[in-house]
Write a structure and sequence with these properties.
The protein is of the alpha/beta class. Helices cover about 40% and strands about 15% of the residues. β16, α14 and β17 form a beta-alpha-beta unit.
Length: about 700
């Protein structure tokens, strides 16, 4: 079974310290060691680190990168490879003391509101190494870690930043912690995003903690857990690069969190400070004072000044810029769709890039399997952000993935195609994942619907994912409407060595258990109240249990938490809580395994089954016998478009019909021939929604738009 705790160590050319760190893990993890996995991500070391891990630590998973991805990029590789619900990010120049990791993990398990917790860091001589901080202010940036700090070290702004006004020896909430040792909750990272790959090194942990806190989680300092940190063993190998990366990271942090003006002011200020410092060092060199030291410092300062502390992004030409309000690791259907479409287009050698909101940061894969360029990010999707991204990538098509909830119901995105048509010469495509009207202001009335119509009319082409929306857009007078379905965001790809019996045992299901699988977010349109009432009736007939696959909350709709609480209360009232199995967050491969362990899937949508539902497509992808609701009376059937047929590829019941739902499940549970027929029908439907087919349809549209 999968581990609960993953320990990720990012290494660069410190083989001896890495070996000491790995040897310290078992006593440090204590009772958690049996539930741990250890992963080493090597950032293209040249000191034999990779060979040492393979030779001396065969039980450790190894990811050897072909190039140095930096602190952010390398750790993101490890996070994605990790399987645990808790992920400890550990520097290789650390030695966790006995019981330290055990205390961190136990604290996290006991405090579900905590997204990140960090230990007390100690210097090799046992003295305290400061690691807790408040978020930096603009005033602090003018002094901290500059030559001025030596003269102004007692300023109150510095005391506040280093939390010298709060006793160090007690457990306490903090703003952020040193990245040398951070225990992160996977769910918090899923909501806030991984490390921003725009930071090569330094300030990335400040940025991450800020986003985690912004997502509603808490960050804690736990002094009872102690870890020795040698400090600077990797960065000390290239001092000029350390200065450049440190100050470039600082500039990026303030640009992202205080605005472009603040970022530029900090950048110009730091360049001025280091120009003066270089002149001072040159003067001392001329006077003959420690000339070798002065020469080294002058070289370092000149390298810093030459780069201008500008963020360097690798050049990458793209023909299409995919614009989305959410992107993995955010839990949302539009984000998953954009990611899978991006991958499918790359597989066909069609270069694309993604523009998304800050915090949703994931990297594409290079041909050698190492992560490559991540998405371009902006605090919000505006005309300026889109124009900058289009200029940076050279894209000729801007393709907006539109779902109202993914853009926080704000109408700014609805104006983007119209504005691009006046400021940019390329083609704009909009995929409407739904036609929900955005919020404008109270009593906006018809104006809300007008925002979607303006977006559709301003685009060069419009894509919809189902015949109903296509018919509605044609009623609006749209001529360029392409009907392209969505695909399943969960591939039929369980973990290696998948064993159905063992996975059913994981959920407490034996041969006599009928395991119904539900997959999807917990919102009010999913008919889960009817499903719980049907479960109560089925429990009177046999051992029926309901497997709730995945985390269920998502990122786009804040009402999902309220719906989840209401369902929990209803389950208690009906007495079926003991028959509910909540898996919690699972990786895509684990979701695949969980679905395959079910006897059937039950998806009782209140608004009728529709192929716009990603959860329905995931069930079809896995060939599960399906019980769902009749399509809405407003459903439009298009020739050549597949449809659900009762008894052939699903059992269909009326929406909100608890009795009919229970009868359909009971019938399916007792009829093996029917289950086999529905499985064949599901797999036949799934072929229509393959990502290969979807990508080819997109390419045909792009090629048409790019013709002279």
């Amino acid at each position: 079974m999968n581990p609960e705790l993953s320990i990720v160590i990012l290494n660069w050319n410190v083989a001896k310290l890495l070996a000491e760190c790995l040897r310290a893990l078992p006593p440090a993890a204590g009772g958690w060691w049996g539930r741990c996995e250890a992963l080493v991500v090597d950032n293209a070391s040249s000191d034999g680190s990779v060979e040492m891990v393979r030779r001396d630590f065969p039980g450790v998973q190894l990811r050897a990168l072909s190039r140095n991805m930096g602190f952010s990029g390398g750790n993101n590789v490890g996070i994605r490879a990790a399987q645990g619900r808790y992920i400890l990010l550990l520097n290789p120049d650390t030695v966790p003391l006995p019981g330290s990791i055990d205390r961190l993990a136990s604290f996290m398990a006991a405090h579900p509101e905590v997204g990140i917790v960090g230990p007390r860091l100690l210097n090799p001589d046992g003295t305290l190494q400061s690691s807790r901080r408040r978020f930096p202010s603009l005033g602090l940036a003018l002094v901290e870690s500059t030559p001025l700090q030596k003269w102004l070290g007692k300023l109150s702004v510095l005391r506040r930043f280093y939390m010298l006004d709060v006793p160090e020896g007690r457990t306490q909430p903090v703003d952020w912690l040193s990245g040398a040792a951070l225990l992160c909750r996977r769910e918090a990272l899923s909501q806030a995003g991984l490390f921003d790959p725009g930071y090569f090194m330094f300030s990335e942990e400040t940025d991450l903690c800020r986003r985690v806190k912004g997502a509603g989680w808490r960050v804690f300092y736990l002094p009872q857990a102690e870890i020795v940190h040698y400090g600077g063993q990797s960065t000390g190998q290239d001092v000029p690069a350390r200065h450049i990366n440190f100050n470039t990271g600082k500039v990026r942090y303030f640009r992202l969190h205080s605005g472009p003006l603040a970022g530029n002011l900090i950048r110009l200020y730091l360049l001025t400070v280091y120009l003066v410092q270089a002149m001072v060092e040159a003067g001392k060199w001329l006077l003959g004072h420690k000339r070798r030291l002065r020469a080294q410092r002058i070289v370092a300062y000149l390298q810093l000044l030459k780069g201008g502390l500008r963020e360097h992004r690798p050049a990458h030409h793209a023909r299409v810029l995919l614009v989305t309000g959410e992107y993995p690791p955010a839990q949302g259907g539009v984000g998953d769709y954009t990611c899978l479409l991006n991958q499918a287009l790359h597989e066909r050698a069609w270069p694309t890039r993604v523009l998304t909101r800050s915090g949703f940061s994931v990297q594409a894969a290079e041909p050698d399997g190492t992560p490559g360029l991540g998405p371009l990010t902006a605090p919000s999707i505006t005309l300026q952000a889109a124009l900058r991204a289009l200029k940076a990538t050279g894209a000729q098509v801007a393709h907006v993935q539109y779902q109202t909830g993914a853009y926080e119901m704000r109408p700014t995105i609805n104006l983007l195609p119209w504005l691009l048509g006046r400021k940019w010469g390329g083609a704009t495509v909009v995929t409407f994942h739904d036609l929900r009207a955005p919020y404008l202001f109270p009593k906006a009335g018809p104006l809300r619907d007008w925002a979607n119509r303006l977006m559709a009319r301003s685009a060069s082409a419009v894509i919809v994912t189902n015949p109903e929306d296509a018919a509605r857009l044609l009623e609006w007078g749209m001529r360029r409407v392409e009907l392209i379905p969505i695909g399943s965001n969960i591939r039929n790809d369980p973990p290696a060595g998948y064993n159905r019996r063992r996975w059913r045992e994981r959920w407490g299901a034996d041969e006599g258990t009928v395991l119904m699988a539900y997959f999807g977010f917990l919102n009010s349109s999913k008919g889960l109240d009817s499903l719980l009432r049907a479960l109560r009736a089925l429990r009177e007939k046999g051992d029926f249990r309901l497997l709730m696959v995945g985390g269920g909350l998502g990122s786009s709709d804040p009402t999902n938490r309220r719906t989840a609480a209401e369902l929990s209360r209803l389950a208690d009232e009906l007495g079926v809580s003991g028959s509910l199995i909540w898996t919690g967050y699972l990786s895509p491969q684990e979701v695949s395994a969980a679905l395959l362990s079910g006897d059937m899937a039950v998806l009782p949508y209140t608004d009728g089954a529709s192929f716009r539902r990603g959860s329905l497509l995931a069930v079809l992808e896995h060939g599960l016998p399906l019980v769902t609701t009749l399509p809405s009376g407003d459903a439009v059937h298009k020739p050549g478009w597949p449809k659900l047929v009762d008894g052939e590829n699903a059992l269909l019941v009326k929406a909100c019909d608890t009795e009919g739902l229970a009868e359909a499940v009971w019938r399916l549970a007792g009829d093996g021939e029917l289950r086999a027929r529905l499985t064949g029908g599901s797999l036949e439907l799934a072929r229509f929604f393959s990502w290969q087919r979807i990508a080819e349809h997109h390419l045909s549209l792009y090629r048409m738009l790019l013709k002279p």
